[in-house]
Amino acid sequence: MAKTSSxxxxxxxxxxxxxxxxxxxxxxxxxMDRELPVEERFEATLKxxxxxxxxAKIRVxxxxxxxxxxxxxxxxFKLSRNQLRDLANNGQxxxxxxxxx
Length: 101
What we know:
One of its GO terms (cellular component) is ribosome. Keywords: Ribonucleoprotein, Ribosomal protein, RNA-binding, rRNA-binding. Residues 1-20 are annotated as: Disordered. Belongs to the universal ribosomal protein uS14 family. By secondary structure, the chain is mainly alpha-helical. It is 50% helix and 4% strand. It has two domains: 1-60, no CATH class; 62-94, CATH 4.10.830.10. It has helices spanning 4-32, 38-50, 81-89, and strands at residues 73-74, 79-80. Strands 1-2 form a two-stranded antiparallel sheet. Strand 1 and strand 2 form a beta hairpin. The radius of gyration is 20 Å and the shape is elongated.
């Protein structure tokens, strides 16, 4: 089990990234638009820098929903490899079977 502080920090980052996503997208569109004057783009860059760092989507770490493990996760199931194997062997994930040939 991961430290609860790490899990909570990641959840806070998820919440902040959802909150600031529209602002970030609008400012990034202004910054990337080559048709606009340089001063306007620079102001947008400064405003983007004023937003909290943890509001960026890239700072959110994919963690297992059950244990909080940060490594070896499957995006489709939001589970770590260990938990996915345990649940699959117990038949708790529909349609997932062990490979045999």
